[in-house]
Amino acid sequence: METLKISTCFPPLFHFNFNTPKFSRIIIGEKKKDNFSFPQNHQQPNKSRFNNLFTTNISISTNDEQKITTKNNENQEEEKFDWYAQWYPIMLLSELNKRRPQGIKVMGIDLVVWWDRNLEEWKVMDDACPHRLAPLSQGRIDQWGRLQCVYHGWCFNGSGDCKFIPQAPRDGPPVHTSKRACVAVYPSFVQNDVLWFWPNNDPSYKNIHLSKMPPYIPLLDLNNANSSYGKTTLVREIPYGYELLIENLMDPSHVNYAHHGIMKIPPSPKR
């Protein structure tokens, strides 16, 4: 009698990589799917060890293989999430100051937010002057309502166009009109007293709010006649990654102990 030996099949090992930001804002929470892969030094199970166990032959025609491949590709395209084709909240309007620009980083993009009094709109632009890449958020709003760089005084309007270069001779060529002197502008929109932005400055997305609006909560809109709620806004900087924040908020069992004496909590049942 022949003895059939079956070798143990080692389970795959998964390596998880979590990118943890230095700070998390309570009003922003996005988590990417975890990426995993087989380590380079892991030996895959040898399929030949199972040849003696399974003798049934399965044949698949070329047409069937093409159908399966096409279906898998379609599913992958449907499941793909474009992180740069979404609205993201930047700041509450109560945080913003119309008299000076403010800087913030969202989705890894350094942004400057400022009030264009000529258009009466909040503007979101790259936080870098095209001249020497000085942060525009450290600049000022000049007497004509333009965003002025703090380094050499270059001035920009709400469309990102350079309108004035102090060092350029008045009788010389209009160098400020060069496209290389422009600042990238991102689509922005105010919803529920929150300033949102679209992290793609391609001109085709200039009016993206007409086809895709940021999330809207009618009950929080004090201008809505059907709203009977008041609201209080709060922003807090927390020095840890967003995944820990979400885990903490989804864990109510710690409240009675970690927040003892701070929050009004019903007493724990006696056992």
TrEMBL record:
Coarse class of the protein's main subcellular location: membrane
A GO molecular-function descriptor: 2 iron, 2 sulfur cluster binding
Gene3D superfamilies assigned: Naphthalene 1,2-dioxygenase Alpha Subunit, Chain A, domain 1, Rieske [2Fe-2S] iron-sulphur domain
Pfam families for this protein: Rieske (PF00355)
Keyword annotations of the record: 2Fe-2S, Iron, Iron-sulfur, Membrane, Metal-binding, Oxidoreductase, Transit peptide, Transmembrane, Transmembrane helix
Domain Rieske: 87-197
CDD domains in the record: Rieske_RO_Alpha_PaO
Subcellular location field: Membrane
Lineage, opening ranks: Eukaryota, Viridiplantae, Streptophyta, Embryophyta, Tracheophyta
Name listed for the protein in its UniProt record: Protochlorophyllide-dependent translocon component 52, chloroplastic
InterPro entries assigned to the protein according to its UniProt record, in alphabetical order: Cholesterol_7-desaturase, Rieske_2Fe-2S, Rieske_2Fe-2S_sf
GO CC field: cytoplasm; membrane
PANTHER family in the record: CHOLESTEROL 7-DESATURASE NVD, IRON-SULFUR DOMAIN CONTAINING PROTEIN
